[in-house]
Amino acid sequence: CLPCPLGSYKNAFGDTKCLTCKGGTTTLATGSLSEALCVCPGGFYMGAQEAEGCIRCDALTKPWTSCTEA
Questions:
Q1: pTM beyond 0.85
Q2: Which long-range contacts (CB under 8 A, 24 or more apart) does 5-8 make?
Q3: What does the pLDDT look like over 26-66, one tens digit per residue?
Q4: Which residues pair with 45 in a beta bridge?
Q5: 32 burial class (0-12, 13-18, 19+ CB within 10 angstroms)?
Q6: Beta carbons of 67 and 57 less than 8 angstroms apart
Q7: What is the full DSSP assignment across the chain?
């Protein structure tokens, strides 16, 4: 089996289908095995509601220092 590319994950080991991360999230490495490993890229944060997806950081919505982590 092949590892999933960035931005996707499998729910289990084996030759299962890779699932795409939702809401503009991505993974930090290939071969991710959980949706929990899908995170917003640097400079973005996850909105309060999952449906909001990743939101660009700015001084009015969230301090930039808390948005620099991927």
A1: no
A2: 5/30, 6/30, 7/38, 8/32
A3: 999 999 999 999 999 988 888 887 778 888 887 566 555 55
A4: 55
A5: buried
A6: yes
A7: --PPPTTEE-SSSSSPPPEEPSTT-B-SSSS---GGG-BPPTTEEE-SSGGG-EEE--TTTS-GGGG---
Could you give the C-alpha distances from 23 to 14, 15, 16, in angstroms and in order? Answer: 26, 25, 22
**Residue 54 near residue 23, CB atoms below 8 Å:** yes
pLDDT at 51: 76
